[in-house]
Amino acid sequence: MIAESVQTIPIDTGFADAAPVQTPAEIARDDAPAGQGLYNYLSAIQQVVRNQIPPAWVRAEVSQISRRNGNIYIDLVEHDAHGQIIAKVRAVIWRNAAFSIVTKFEQGAGAALEADIKVMIKVRAELHPQYGLAVVISDIDPAYTLGDMEAKLRQIRAHLRDKGIYDINRSLPQPGEFTRVAVIAPSEAAGLGDFRREADLLAAHGVCTFDYQTATFQGREAPKAIYSAMRSLWEDHQVTPYDALVIIRGGGARADLQWLNDLRLAEAICRISIPVFTGIGHERDNTILDEVATRFDTPSKVIRHIAETITRNATQAAEDWKFIGEVARQQVMRAHQEAEGLIRLVGESAHGRLQLAREQADRTHAGIGQQARTLLHLSMSRVQGHREDMERHTRQALGRAGQEVEHHRSDVTMLVQREMDAARMRLDDLARGVAGRARSLVRDAGRQVLGLGADVRD
Fold first, then answer.
1. What averages of pLDDT result for each successive group of 10 residues across the chain (458 residues)?
2. Residue of 15, 33, 165, 274 with fewest CB within 10 Å of its CB?
3. Cα(242)–Cα(126) distance, rounded to whole angstroms?
4. What's the pLDDT at 186?
5. Residue from 343, 110, 303, 123 nearest 200 by CA
6. What is the pLDDT of residue 12?
7. Residue 391 to residue 380: CA distance in whole angstroms
8. What is the pLDDT of residue 30?
């Protein structure tokens, strides 16, 4: 308006007759509008905004939030499809309504009113002459934010399922024993204290070791911090494997759960080859981490599961050892009884066989003795017969010699002597042969008896 009232004065560019250049004050007309002050102008707009623009529900994203003197100051933005900011405005929740508005929102949405969340807010436009345009928030619809977070969860689930990794970690075989466990938790968290009370007892008794990594579980840096802790523990796992990776929180605000709904973090849990247990700390509220891992409600339930598994295995091992001892005792007793039976049976059998051998030896000995006596008697009879024959021959020879004695007295005497000597020698040889044969028969019979006895002893 003021600019439009200023007229442009043509200026001659000649040098000889050029008139002096006029100043803006000199060229201003005496009848120009006086104008108005900026305050009055903005105050007029303020009244128009206040009276002509009604309150409205507006979708926006919280860019920054701060609190001062009980008031909550928020920077609201809107992005286009390419992520570029296309609108921005300052908003305020006055302290007289801040508590009720924020409480209603956080209880309904289960999320804190903080940066990087999308909200549906009821606003009234305000234009202050000194502070400019702002909107005053009188209500926040938690259902919209809840729906947006659920939509984000659905997108993450769909992405993981499209890649075929949604159920991979949860489908890993559950540990049958725990000797080494990795733990990620916020430092100084109440849930970590509950977990460590029992975990430290297990570690003190040398039953299971626990390696701890701390990470923040709230704010926009939470996914990055947890991912970094997982990476560190994964490197340790390559050296000495873990039985399980435990992610616990406990004791935090429900509103902080939204920070755990992160695609990169969820995908890392899906792909890691260590069974992951979560104990985030809320029974009714899930995060995407609970969905892709083995979920426990609280840290206490996680450590209770680990301790019960260890105790159950120890109890089973003790029962197995007792059973093995009992079976071994029964086996030893049975073997002892069988050995005694065998010894008794062998003894009885050996005694019987020895008695039988003795009887058989006695019979054999008697038979051999009888055979020897019979053979000796027969031999003596034969010797006697030979003797009688020789005596007869001798007498005959003597008779013949007597007849011829006169002719051959000396020859006969010599002949008779030779015959007598020869007969005696034959008789002695025959007797010695018979006696030797008898001794041989007796000796063989004795050997048979001794051999039969040795067989019985064996």
1. 36 44 54 79 89 92 92 93 89 95 87 85 91 92 84 91 95 94 90 92 94 90 94 96 93 71 95 95 77 92 95 82 78 80 76 76 74 73 71 72 64 72 79 76 66 53
2. 15
3. 59
4. 92
5. 303
6. 41
7. 16
8. 55
| Cβ pair 277, 247 in contact under 8 A | yes
Widest CA span of the chain, in angstroms? 229
Bridge partner list, 136: 92, 124
Cβ contact 123:135 at 8 Å:
yes
pLDDT reported for residue 255: 63
**Contacts for 335-338: CB closer than 8 Å, 24+ residues apart:** none
User: What pLDDT, on a 0 to 100 scale, did the predictor assign at position 22?
Assistant: 56
What's the length of the chain? 458
**Dihedral (Cα; 48, 52, 58, 61), 10-degree rounding:** 0
Burial label, 436 (beta-carbon count in 10 A; 0-12, 13-18, 19+): exposed
The type of residue at 18 is: A
**Cα(263)–Cα(258) distance, integer angstroms:** 12
Distance CA 226, CA 287 (A): 14
Structure tokens at 1: 């308006």
249 DSSP assignment = -
Which runs of consecutive H residues, i.e. helices, occur in 240-298?
263-271, 288-292
Instruction: Give Cβ neighbours of residue 305 (< 8 Å, ≥ 6 apart).
Output: 277, 296
Residue whose structure tokens are 């891992």: 293
For 287-324, the DSSP string reads: -HHHHHSEEESSHHHHHHHHHHHHHHHHHHHHHHHHHH
| Residue 122: strand, helix, or coil | strand
- Phi and psi dihedrals of 8, rounded to 5? -90, 125
* pLDDT value for 146: 80
The tokens 């120890």 sit on which residue?
Answer: 314
Half-sphere exposure of 369 (CA within 13 A, CB side): 7
Cβ pair 259, 280 in contact under 8 A: no
| Residue 220 confidence (pLDDT) | 82
Three-state SS at 88: strand
Amino acid at 26: E
Q: Is the dihedral of CA 329, 331, 334, 336 positive or negative?
A: negative
Can you point out the beta strands (E) in 31-175?
Answer: 56-68, 71-79, 85-93, 118-128, 132-141
Asked if 290 and 266 count as a contact pair (C-beta separation under 8 A), the reply is no
Compute the distance between CA of residue 365 and CA of residue 352 in angstroms, rounded to an integer.
19
State both tokens at 207.
């039953």
What separation in angstroms does the CA of 182 have from each of 70, 227, 237, 250, 278? 42, 14, 9, 17, 12
Please give the structure tokens belonging to residue 169. Answer: 């970690």
Distance CA 324, CA 318 (A): 10
